């Protein structure tokens, strides 16, 4: 991920080493009660072979961002109101549905959270992988079947010749997620989007799946966009991270910067509200209040009503990450607000070193 | 039970007549050899063809005022254990006592009185509240069911006041009593669930994954609340969760379950700093750490948890055990079922592993280093 400001005003395709370039994406939903701005001006890039994590709590717009990229939203009620999504030199938002079908699977593939609901219960695992392969390559049914077996072997499923003939319900949760990964990889995508890939899994199975995604990302050199609410998973899996809050990216940077020296009060609040070893006996930090009502967004900064560092400009002006230099945080603590000559802070407070949770005996 | 003298007073209907002051360190809940099987029905006549051994011979004690954490992966029996203890499911075998009184033998009126003293907070804040009831009825229903002359809960006014009091105790406004569940956020719903459990003035509360469905920032609010309420109402919790960091934060004692058995139990500091069961070690090593400066040795377990309908012979963990592999696959892991035994110098640290003494930092280090990147799924049968 590059941290450049000009993104939103860029015209034409991005540089060749940029695989995904999302520019000022706005995805809205028209619902009975009004307009929900689920994604409200999000910009980021992923270079070839790089990894980006998107973190945030439920409703922050992280999944809608990925569904917008895949163009898997129901329109209506959804609407991509504006923005550009450049993938490998073409703007996905200008493609016809047929062209988009070619892109899905071929150039970008997605792994979903719930492996049971994203697999079709009435077809065998093999049928489902074969369908994707036949759709995107010139392979015959027979060749595609063998490719399916091969990709099951690649994701560490033992006895793939037998598994390929089984139905999703015959597999365990971890196994189903492996099948999803096998399916996603069967056409060698350039970008893999994993939307909460391990949230439904137990911790020991999660460790297996994360290991697998890492290994495959290493070997195939595809780019990875990992969407999760788990800051631990982000820390272990990706190099760069973007924190989303109420439809916006509020902070971004390398994992080392964001998780060790969080700038945005929301990021800091998230990190300190995770229970950790040293906190036993003391009260956990709490981000007071709840996420703002999408029909009634606060004036000024979206996070201001919950922010412990709130000062005058926060209630009046809306901070944008694009206005920061470098554009790594959307907060008036770090960017001079309109009418102010300097910002109160230069860098984020460094978090105490040391394990937040214990691991193997130390 | 040492507190047999305390028992009669606790059976009295007066909900405020309890004395916690001098009871610290006393055992409140004692479980002995608890077994819970669910029958598997099959064949043409739907006869019983097997058992799911959800909880299989579990014994432990919880001291008054303590938080007893119970961790394990899905299907290990931790929720079944909690629900069986408070008699939401009948046990298959075993005994349990609350404050010296047997839990499983109670019938009729006695059982009803007992139920008030043991409550539960559920995981799903949506599914556990009736969408057609206002909050006053959701919390008041239990009060009405437990109404007696002494507590006056049969009177609407008394009930409404109590509902309001407990809404305030969990950090909600009194007038929320008129609202319906859909008007609340997930965190607020969970607070309602907590108020419902506490309004009956229980001694013992089973918290069944109370924060798993919540976002991180809301989760910390609920955890703080649970700890405050424990102090305020002198509660004892059985805290069931799969999140190891949450359990570490809130618990005094922690038990780790695997396939219906407790494989390790110790006080929280001990368990997290010196785990001695190879499963506990792997479980702790698998938790991703949000601090990128921490890079820990990871032991990735092979395969899936075997089916509780047909648990492996001997030690139930032997099919996935890295320690067994490290020791050259000793035979007794397959043949002998290890008992939960006291190890080391710390009193109360019990482990069910033949080779628990062999687990050391060095061994873990070596095993993690030697471990090939395990992506292969070796579990043949699911």
Notes on the protein architecture:
The complex is a heterodimer of chains A (362) and B (382). Chain A is an alpha/beta fold and 362 residues long. Chain A has helices at 62-70, 97-106, 115-118, 125-136, 141-154, 160-163, 173-185, 203-220, 231-237, 255-260, 265-272, and strands at residues 18-31, 34-47, 51-55, 78-87, 90-91, 108-111, 191-195, 223-228, 240-245, 248-254. In chain A, helix 5 (141-154) packs across helix 7. With 382 residues, chain B is α/β, with parallel strands linked by helices. Chain B has two domains: 27-258, P-loop containing nucleotide triphosphate hydrolases (Rossmann fold, 3-Layer(aba) Sandwich); 274-379, no CATH class. Chain B is built from 13 helices and twelve strands. Chain B has helices at 7-11, 78-85, 108-117, 135-145, 156-169, 186-198, 216-233, 244-250, 268-273, 278-285, 322-326, 332-335, 361-370; strands at residues 27-42, 47-63, 67-71, 93-98, 101-102, 118-121, 204-208, 236-241, 253-258, 261-267, 341-342, 350-351. In chain B, helix 4 (135-145) packs across helix 5 and helix 5 packs across helix 6. The longest helix of chain B has 18 residues, at 216-233. Mean pLDDT of chain B is 85; it is low at 1-23 and 373-382. Classes of the chains: A alpha/beta (362), B alpha/beta (382). Chains A and B meet through helix 7, helix 8, helix 9, helix 10 and helix 11 of A and helix 7, helix 8, helix 9, helix 10 and helix 13 of B.
């Amino acid at each position: 991920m590059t941290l450049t400001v000009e993104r939103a005003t860029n015209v034409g395709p991005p540089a060749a080493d940029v695989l995904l370039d999302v520019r000022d994406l706005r995805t809205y939903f028209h619902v009975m009660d009004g307009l929900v701005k689920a994604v409200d001006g999000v910009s980021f890039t992923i270079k070839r072979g790089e990894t980006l994590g998107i973190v945030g709590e439920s409703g922050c717009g992280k999944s809608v961002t990925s569904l917008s990229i895949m163009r898997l939203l129901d329109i209506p009620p959804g609407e991509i109101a504006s923005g550009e999504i450049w993938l490998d030199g073409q703007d996905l938002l200008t493609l016809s549905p047929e062209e988009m079908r070619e892109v899905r699977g071929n150039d970008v593939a997605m792994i979903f959270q719930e492996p049971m609901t994203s697999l079709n219960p009435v077809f065998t695992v093999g049928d489902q992988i074969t369908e994707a392969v036949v759709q995107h390559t010139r392979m015959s049914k027979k060749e595609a079947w063998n490719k399916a077996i091969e990709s099951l072997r690649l994701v560490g499923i033992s006895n793939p010749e037998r598994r390929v003939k089984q139905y999703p319900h015959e597999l365990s949760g971890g196994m189903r997620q492996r099948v999803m990964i096998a399916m996603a990889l069967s056409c060698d995508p350039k970008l893999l989007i994993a939307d909460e890939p391990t949230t439904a899994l137990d911790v020991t199975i999660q460790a297996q799946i994360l290991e697998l995604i890492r290994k495959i990302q290493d070997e195939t050199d595809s780019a990875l966009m990992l969407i999760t609410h788990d800051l631990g998973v982000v820390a272990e899996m990706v190099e760069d991270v973007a924190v989303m809050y109420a439809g916006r990216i509020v902070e971004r940077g390398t994992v080392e910067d964001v998780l060790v020296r969080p700038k945005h009060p929301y990021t800091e609040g998230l990190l300190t509200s995770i229970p950790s070893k040293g906190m036993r006996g003391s009260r956990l930090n709490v981000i007071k209040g709840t996420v703002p009502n999408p029909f009634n967004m606060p004036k000024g900064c979206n996070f201001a009503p919950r922010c412990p560092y709130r000062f005058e400009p926060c209630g009046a002006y809306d901070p944008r990450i694009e206005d920061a230099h470098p554009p790594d945080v959307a907060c008036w603590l770090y960017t001079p607000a309109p009418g102010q000559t300097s910002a109160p802070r230069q860098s984020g407070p460094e978090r105490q070193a040391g394990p937040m949770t214990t691991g193997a005996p130390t | 039970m040492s507190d047999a003298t305390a028992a009669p007073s606790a059976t009295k209907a007066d909900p405020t007549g309890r004395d916690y002051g001098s009871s610290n360190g006393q055992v409140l809940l004692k479980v002995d050899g608890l077994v819970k099987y669910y029958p598997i029905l099959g064949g043409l006549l739907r006869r019983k063809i097997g058992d799911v051994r959800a909880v299989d011979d579990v014994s432990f004690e919880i001291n008054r005022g303590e938080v007893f954490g119970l961790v394990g992966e899905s299907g290990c029996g931790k929720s079944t254990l909690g629900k069986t203890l408070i008699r939401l499911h009948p046990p298959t075998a075993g005994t349990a006592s609350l404050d010296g009184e047997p839990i499983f033998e109670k019938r009729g009126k006695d059982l009803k009185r007992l139920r008030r003293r043991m409550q539960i907070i559920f995981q799903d804040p949506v599914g556990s509240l009736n969408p057609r009831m206002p909050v006053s009825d959701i919390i008041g229903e239990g009060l009405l069911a437990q109404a007696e002359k002494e507590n006056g809960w049969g009177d609407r006014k008394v009930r409404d006041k109590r509902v309001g009091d407990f809404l305030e105790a969990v950090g909600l406004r009194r007038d929320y009593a008129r609202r319906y569940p859909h008007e609340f956020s997930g965190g607020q719903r969970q607070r309602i669930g907590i108020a419902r459990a506490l309004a009956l003035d229980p001694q013992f509360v089973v918290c069944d994954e109370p924060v798993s469905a919540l976002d991180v920032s809301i989760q910390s609010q609920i955890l703080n609340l649970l700890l405050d309420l424990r102090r305020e109402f002198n509660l004892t919790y059985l805290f069931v969760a799969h999140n190891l960091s949450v359990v570490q934060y809130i618990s005094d004692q922690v038990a780790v379950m695997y396939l219906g058995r407790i494989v390790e139990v110790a006080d929280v500091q001990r368990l997290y700093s010196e785990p001695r069961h190879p499963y506990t070690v792997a479980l702790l090593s698998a938790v991703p750490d949000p601090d990128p400066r921490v890079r820990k040795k990871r032991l990735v377990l092979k395969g899936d948890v075997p089916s509780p309908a047909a648990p492996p012979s001997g030690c139930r963990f032997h099919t996935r055990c890295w320690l067994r592999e490290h020791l050259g696959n000793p035979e007794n892991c397959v043949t002998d079922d290890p008992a939960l035994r006291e190890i080391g110098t710390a009193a109360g640290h019990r482990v069910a592993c033949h080779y628990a003494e062999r687990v050391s930092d060095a061994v873990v280090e070596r095993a993690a280093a030697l471990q090939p990147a395990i992506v292969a799924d070796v579990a043949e049968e699911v």
